[in-house]
Amino acid sequence: MASGIVAYSSPFVPAEWIAAHRLTPLRLTPGPSVVAAGAGICPFAHDFLQASQVPGVADGVIFTTTCDQMRRFAEQARASLPTFLMNVPATWQTTEAVGLYVAELRRMSEFLITLGGHAPTAEELRQTMEAFDKIRRNGSFESRAQWEKDRGGAAGDTLPMNLASSEKGFIRIALVGGPLRKQDAWIAEHLQHAGATIVLDATETGERTLPAPFDEARVRTDPLAELARAYFLTIPDAFRRPDSLLHDYLSREVQARRIRGILLIRCVWCDQWHAQVARIKDSLGVPVVEIDLGQDDHDTPRIKTRIDSLLDMVR
Amino acid sequence: MNEPPAQISLEQWHHRYTSLRAAGFHEAPYGGPLERHFTAGDYRLAQLRFDNSAAALRLWNFLLTETERLFAAQRAGKKIIGTMKDLGTVPIMAYALPDTIAFYPDGTWWIPCIMRQSTRDLAIADSLGIDESFCPVRAMLGAFETHQHFPPPDLLICSVGATCDDFSAIAQRLASRGLAILWWEIPARRTPEPTEEAIALPGGFLAGGRQVDFVQAELQRVSAALAKTVGHEVTDARLAEGITAANRIRDMLRQLRNLVFTAPRCPLPALEMLIAEMLAIHYCSDRQQTQEVLGELLAEVLRRIAVSAGTLPADAVRVFWVNPVADLQAMNLLEECGGRLCGTEFMFCHALDPIPTDVAPMEALARMALADPMIGPSADRAKRIMHDVRQFGAEAVLISRIPGASHCALEGSAIRAIIQRESNVPVVEIEVPPLNEGVRASLRTRLEALVETVRRRRTS
Question: The whole model's pTM is what?
C-alpha cells in the first residue's frame, strides 16, 4: 500500500494542491511497459496508465482532459484505482474557463479527501505554495525535479532530460513537444555525443510546464485563485485554444537562448503536437526536425538519423 | 411514377429521371438529374447504388446542391455561420435568427470521397502539415483555402475541450491561417457529484447541474457573438421557436428510423438513411427544405411498408452501425454482403433526441450539448448503443473506425467489450478510408463473415 501518494502526469495538476491536502504528489514518468499499446494508442498515455496501476505506486491517480486519449484512459484506470478526471479547459481567455478550472480544483479536493487527505485551510495552502515557490525561485529546474522526487518517495517521477550547461562549440538545441518517458533519456545522451547541448527543454516534462512564480500579495488574499492563475493562465501548451501562449513562449525563448535548432518530440499518434510542426517551422526561423516516439526501441536507429540530420542542417 | 423499390446505378437513374419527368414529376428548385453532379466533379456517384424513389432523388439533390445554395444565400445577403464540431447545437441558435444560415465545414470530410480525391483539399492540408495521420476532416483546411465548397463564413465557431484531438488541432491550424474562430468550451461529461443536482439529459445520460450551468454560460457567449454578427438578439422567444422547429425535424427522423429499422423488409437503403440522419445536424443549410425532404422520405417509406415492399431480401442480417464512414460506398457494401441497417449511432445522437421544452431554451440547448455521446465516457455511449440495439432488434454491431481519429483506437475496443459483456450480439470493427478500393476485399470478407455468423446463429 502506498502512503497517501497521488499520481498524475499533467502539468496542469498543481502539486501544491495535493501537498496541501497532506498527501504526496507524484508526477509519474512512466518507464517501459510490458503490455503492448496497440495501433492508434498513445504510448505515453498507455504506459502512464500501466505505471500508475502497479501495486504500491499510488493510492489514487489524476488524469486530465488535456489529451483525448488520457481522458479515455481514465475510464480504464477506474477499474482498479481511485481515479479523478480533471476537466482542464482548452479555452483560457474567459472568466468562465478560469472559473471551471477553479471549480475542478475544488472537486479534486473532494477526491483527495476520499483518499485520506485533509481539506486545507487558506493558511495551509498559502504556506505550501510559498514552500514550493521558494524552491522554484531559488533553485534551477533540476532542483524542482529533485524536490518532487524526494517528496514522491517512489520511483518514476524524475524528469528525464537534464539541461546541459551551455558548452562552447556545442550546437544549442531546444527540445519541444509532448511528454517524455524514462526510456527516452537516450535522446539527450545522443545529442550530447553528436555535438549538441540542450539549452531549452520545452517538452511537457520540461521547464515549459513550470507554473509562473506566485504573487505574494495574491497568495495572501486568495491562495486558490493565485494557484489557478499561476498554472492555468501561464503554462503554454499545444492543446490550448487559442494556442498563442505556446507560440509566444517559443518565440521568446528561442531568441533569448540563441537556439539554433529544434527537436520536436512527440508520441506517435499525437495529433496536437504533430499539427504544431509546420507552424513552428514557419514561425521560428530555425531548423526543426520532428521525431515520433513509439512504445519499443525498434525505431531508435531511424530517430538517431533524424537527430543527426537536424545537426547537419545547423552546422 | 411509383416503381418497385430497388437500388439503381447513376446510369439507371438517368433513365428513371427521364420517365419521372415524363410522368409529370414535380421537383424542388434544386432538383434535376443526378448525373449533373457527376459531371460537376462528384465522381464517387458513379460507384454508388441509390434508392430509386423520387423522394431519394430529392434527398440527393438537396445534399449535393448545398455548396451552390450556400453561395446563393450569401449573395442574397444572408449571414453565413460556420460552426464546427458540436454537431447540432449552435445551428439551432443560428437558424433562430432572421436571414441566417449555419453549416458545418466539418462536412467537407466527405469531399475526398464524393469527388474521388479530384480536388486539392487534401494536398493543401498536407502542405500545411496536416497529413494523412489525421482524420479525413482535414479536407476542411483545403476547403477554407480554395473557397470552392462553401463561401467564407461571416462568423466561425468551434467547440473545444472534450473533443477529438485531431479536430481541435486542425481547427487551430485554421486559426493560424488568419481565420478568427470563436472557441467555446464543452467539458467532459461526468457523473454528477453528490453535492450537485443531477440533470437528466436528452437520450438518458446524466450531468451535474454545475456542468449544465457552465455550458449554458458558454452558449451565452456564442449567442452574443451571433447577435453581433447578424444584428439581431438571440431572444428566448426566437430560441424556443428554433427548438420547436428542431424537434419537429427530430420527430420526423425518429419516425423514419423506427419505421426503417424495424420493418420486416428494409424500406429504405442504408446510404439514404445515413444522408437523412445527417440532415438533423444543420439541416443541410435549409431548415424548411429539410422538413420537406424528410416528409417525402417518410411518405415513401410508409407506402412501401404498407405493401410489404423493400429494397433488400427479407432475410437480410440486421446490423447496427457505429460511427459515420468516410466512404459512403461502405453503406452499399453492407447490403451487398447480405446486411441491412438496423440502428445507427453516427456520433450525433444528441442531434436526434428531442430537446427539452420544459426548461428555459438556453438551458435546454446546454443539456442537448452535454448529451453529445463523444464527450462522455465510452461506457455511456456503449450503454446507449446497447439500448438501441435491443430496441431495433439488431443482430450484430459494426463499429466503423475513422482513420486517424484520436478517439477510435480506445473507444472502439471499449464499446466492443461492453457490448460483448452485456449481450451475445457479435461485434466487428472495421476501418474505412475515404476511398475504400484499396481495402475493399478485406472489408467485404469481414462483412460477409459477420453476416454468416448471424445466419449460423439463426439456424442453430
Answer: 0.95
